[in-house]
């Protein structure tokens, strides 16, 4: 029973994205009055819509409870390839062009639509996103100079700063995530004085929820992801069957209705000591 519940309730964000993609594909098909001709054309059409949706998600990620005033000057942070911080077994370096292949491998590992990664235009656009203004990403290396993943801040002009992290699949579950985020926060506090950080995770991502707790994250409500208004309400109502006991317990902790967790992200805030 427990296994069935876990399988039924896995990857809520991906399910929401997939639902939205299918709806958009159907709208496009009706609009141009044809179906895709063959698997390749179907994949390209799906990939184009997936790319558009990825851009929307990136814009949503830059939303924040408050805009920073005065604006933060990124010059205070390390440049490409420069060291941010060293730890006992890890170091964080400013991302650079030679890391492109590794970054894209990480993105493919965590993506539910891996077919899109055969499209060079999609890969180019995805790589450009990492260098978007007001973002700060750092490559995670071990002391054998092996690239493990990346972490960083999604929007330097947001308040508080929202952290992001992604690891290669084979390095997950080894404590690297919490260690990297603790190093990131320590380094940024030392350089900028910033003490409060934000993390948003999916309600079904137990590994990320555990990581947030390990770094001192406290429940701070929920936030919309990329569906809004009536579309969000309809999605949550349609998928109420996904609510299980674990989601009910999380909803109680975050003081929201259980079905709201289907279309929202959990908010964790971390406050470092002075």
Give the terminus-to-terminus CA distance. Answer: 46 Å
Query: What's the helix-strand series?
Result: HHHEEEHHEEEEHEHEHHE
Measured as a percent range, the helix fraction is 40-55%
Total domain modules: 2
CATH topology of the largest domain: Aminopeptidase
Determine and state the CATH class of the largest domain: Alpha Beta
SS strand fraction = 15-25%
CATH homologous superfamily annotation of the largest domain: Gcn5-related N-acetyltransferase (GNAT)
Question: Which architecture of the largest domain would the CATH scheme give at its second level?
Answer: 3-Layer(aba) Sandwich
User: Low-confidence stretches at least 5 residues in length (pLDDT < 50)?
Assistant: 1-10, 29-45
For the largest beta-sheet, the strand count, sense and barrel status come to: 8 strands, mixed
Please supply descriptive tags for the structure shown above:
274 residues; alpha+beta; Aminopeptidase; 2 domains; 8-stranded mixed β-sheet; two-stranded antiparallel sheet; 9 helices; globular
